[in-house]
């Protein structure tokens, strides 16, 4: 089988040919049909997250890693203890796999397992930039119904991340009271899921007019360019005095500075931080208390939330979005294009 592996941070991935693994016990082997390329792959490839003030936070614990965690493929082989999945059927793989022994894993929160013990596909163990993916248990396989092959895998990360973040907001928000910062792949999926699952059409903020136009086409209640000097006033006017919740899919010093101004004088507001652009941010502490405000990090989603999301997907309640397809051999160009902001919406690689 062929895989593209990190051999050194920020260097091109290297094509490696090696033996196809044979599943044993509860393991299953999936032949990759498509693997989404996620913005977090850039940080994994770089080897660090920006901690601000020149500090670098390691983003992975090993080299010789096959990235790719948004995997959709055909089940081709199973271990002797597997009985509830069907060889030849296509599945989305839930990639946020824990050790199975810690308190988080035992409480249904495998995605919170320690990075030193987690077995996340494409992060801690080999993932989907490959012909085949070995998965440790059949319970991580999900039927995607008639979802397009090129989109299905993205529900395991970007779709799930958007869904979990939306659940963390006050779901009684009206469309003009929920703001999304960032109109990339995550923002696009969040728009669709917000409308389908929560009957909300958020307003969207970005610095790229092309992405804002796409967000408007996909159902945003309004779009705003963050480069405008009066963007806070524009949002305040549209939202009748400020929003009640912000989901930040960028996660930079600049977006937090902007996003926390969008609440106006409203109290009880929630800021859901998802993006990993990085940096540091200072808070005016009395305003957090007087405003009864919350800043909450949101990291992917639980196995239970994946079940909830995929029920919506199979029921065709989430309208598909366009996905750019590229050959797996274009992985290095694709990572560079994504890093430089040259990809509109979602992109996947196909072996």
TrEMBL record:
Ranges for domain Alcohol dehydrogenase-like C-terminal: 185-313
Q: Which residues form the Alcohol dehydrogenase-like N-terminal domain?
A: 26-139
Q: Which Pfam families match?
A: ADH_N, ADH_zinc_N
| Keyword set includes Transferase | no
What InterPro entries does this protein map onto?
ADH-like_C (IPR013149), ADH-like_N (IPR013154), ADH_Zn_CS (IPR002328), GroES-like_sf (IPR011032), NAD(P)-bd_dom_sf (IPR036291)
Give cofactor(s), names only: Zn(2+)
Identify one Gene Ontology CC term for this UniProt entry.
cytoplasm
> Where in this chain does the entry annotate a coiled-coil region?
none
SUPFAM superfamilies named among the record's database cross-references? GroES-like (SSF50129), NAD(P)-binding Rossmann-fold domains (SSF51735)
Under the GO molecular function aspect, what terms does this record hold?
alcohol dehydrogenase (NAD+) activity; zinc ion binding
Q: Does the keyword Oxidoreductase apply?
A: yes
As for family, the record states: Belongs to the zinc-containing alcohol dehydrogenase family.
The cross-references to PANTHER family, in alphabetical order and at most eight, read: ALCOHOL DEHYDROGENASE 1-RELATED, VACUOLAR PROTEIN SORTING-ASSOCIATED PROTEIN 11
Its protein name is NAD-dependent alcohol dehydrogenase
């Amino acid at each position: 089988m062929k895989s593209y592996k990190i051999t050194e941070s920020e260097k091109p991935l290297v094509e490696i040919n090696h033996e196809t693994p044979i599943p044993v016990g509860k393991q299953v082997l999936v032949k990759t049909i498509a693997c989404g390329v996620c913005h977090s792959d850039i940080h994994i490839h770089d080897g660090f997250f920006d901690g601000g003030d020149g500090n670098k936070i390691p983003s992975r614990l090993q080299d010789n890693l096959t990235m790719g965690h948004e995997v959709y493929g055909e089940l081709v082989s199973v271990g002797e203890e597997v009985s509830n999945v069907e060889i030849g059927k296509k599945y989305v793989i839930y990639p946020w796999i824990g050790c199975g022994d810690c308190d988080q894993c035992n409480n249904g929160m495998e995605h919170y397992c320690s990075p030193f013990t987690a077995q996340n596909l494409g992060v801690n163990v080999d993932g989907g930039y490959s012909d085949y993916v070995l998965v440790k248990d059949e319970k991580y396989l999900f039927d995607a119904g008639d979802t397009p092959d090129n989109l299905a895998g993205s529900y395991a990360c970007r779709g799930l991340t958007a869904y979990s973040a939306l659940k963390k907001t006050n779901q009684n928000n009206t469309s003009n009271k929920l703001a999304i910062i960032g109109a990339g792949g995550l923002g696009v999926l969040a728009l669709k899921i917000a409308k389908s699952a929560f009957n909300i059409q958020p307003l969207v903020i970005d610095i790229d007019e092309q992405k804002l136009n796409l967000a408007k086409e996909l159902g945003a209640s309004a779009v705003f360019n963050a480069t405008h000097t009066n963007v806070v006033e524009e949002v305040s006017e549209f939202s009748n005095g400020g929003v009640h919740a912000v989901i930040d899919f960028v996660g930079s010093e600049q977006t937090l500075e902007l996003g926390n101004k969008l609440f106006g004088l409203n109290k009880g507001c929630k800021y859901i931080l998802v993006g990993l652009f990085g940096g540091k941010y200072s808070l005016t502490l009395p305003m957090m208390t007087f405003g009864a405000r919350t800043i909450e990090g949101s990291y992917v989603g639980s196995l239970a939330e994946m079940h909830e999301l995929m029920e919506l997907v199979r029921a065709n309640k989430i309208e598909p979005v366009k996905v750019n397809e590229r050959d797996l051999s274009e992985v290095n160009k694709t990572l560079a294009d994504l890093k430089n902001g040259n990809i509109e919406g979602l992109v996947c690689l196909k072996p």
